[in-house]
Design a protein that fits this description.
homotetramer, alpha/beta, 7-stranded parallel sheet, 22% strand
């Protein structure tokens, strides 16, 4: 059976510690961590996963694998720019949002279009109809409990 | 000078009359109406524009021009699926949202990522930091007043 | 009935005169000319179409309509980079290639994936299984005769 | 240091044995094998890599990870349809083509647009300016010798 893949999305230098914790917890539960492959929340989530011995995928906006942060094991260069947000959302069996702005909102929207479970870590974007969690632990538990078995 | 292009996004069978009015008003002001090229709000906005003698562009999710509704003058087949929402938002000097669900939220998010002015027609999606208008007239005036001159 | 759309693809400063002639001939036959919206062959084909009173669509790689050359009537900003070549090919009922290099080859390949008729103007890329024409007139006649009625 | 990623592209039921051998040889040399994640040549290359204890990435055209063949370790769901060919080409430090038709030609074209080394295994598509190899061994050696150190 393949490892579950969970996407961690978001941004904001102030959310790095939480993102790292989310990545670590996901890896401890055997999940592969999928991110957009760049900095801040993306790098922190990947770093946390690697610290826990996990595996990471980075789905990059540009055309060069060299853009990936150092904690990305497997880099996919999409050339899609902002639209790579769709592939990040689509490649997670669930999506956890940490901080973030408009780009993160697009990822949440696409995840919902695709029926993927989404959890917003508090404090986070205000989006009606999306689950929220108070801590990284709660976010990970909620995301995994809702992840589609068939995704 | 080229005509301004304004994107009309959204969905919902109950919002067709308003979308048609938005399309008509945009055409009367000399704007080309850009939509996703399919049904409901998209078709209504294009129909309204054509009734007023305007020009319409449909940016389709699929690979066939034949998918466009009959009020689309110029159909672009992107093959992008849901990601064509990005091209719709990017191709408008401003974006007006009428109704809608998660797909519309992705278009609003992308428009904001790109710095495009966005106006949500009431009642509409709750998105912090996005202008709102009570009527089609107000939505069109607000969108045009904020459209970037250089777009 | 909607105007036929024919995509003109290619590159090369030495092919500008031929591309302009292709654009002109397509417009004279009532076709809308679709290009990638930038320079050289793309600009020349659009300019030729406008000289003949035609209509032009530019499908841009970037996110700003301002990137379009001055002969583009309707600009679609895709943000797709090189992948916008797919949308160019998909948006033509037929595709005519004038000069070009690897990007043009991707457009020819995608047009064939989609079953669109493709004509390469001599001298041009060597691609097995693609029709060739000796002159702009012949290229336009061949492309139109093979354009799918249902596209 | 990260593992090199090499994309194996192509199609054709008659080329499965060679594709499996290419995948096996790449894994033996420590490369991660990137494919489009579906059947025939894609599945065979991934299967070969797994038989040799390697790691595989599948870059899927659709929106569901469940579409991946069983030898894909890490599946990226792009929703890009045919355009996912770009991401496959972009995600390889080199590209090896086994068999194939128009879709494969688009991958070769995009790889060349991006400056990635490409090797066509004989018998294969006729594309001017692309290296050719007579055997899977030769294809793998040639691809690796030309892979950009910085990709």
């Amino acid at each position: 059976m393949k490892a579950r893949q969970v996407a961690v999305v978001g941004s904001g230098p102030g959310r790095v510690a939480e993102a790292e914790e989310v990545g670590r917890l996901l890896a401890e539960r055997g999940c592969t961590v999928v991110t957009g492959g760049l900095g801040e929340v993306m790098a922190a989530a990947a770093r946390g996963a690697k610290e826990a011995g996990g595996t990471t995928i980075g789905i990059l906006p540009g055309t060069s694998r060299a853009d990936a942060n150092e904690w990305v094991d497997h880099a996919v260069a999409t050339g899609l720019g902002h639209m790579r947000n769709f592939a990040v959302a689509a490649s997670g069996d669930a999506v956890i949002a940490v901080g973030g702005a408009w780009g993160t909102l697009s990822e949440i929207a696409f995840a919902k279009v695709l029926g993927r479970p989404v959890v917003i870590l508090e404090p986070g974007l205000e989006v009606e109809g999306v689950d929220r969690a108070a801590t990284p632990e709660e976010a990970v538990e909620l995301a995994l409990s809702r992840a589609r078995a068939d995704a």
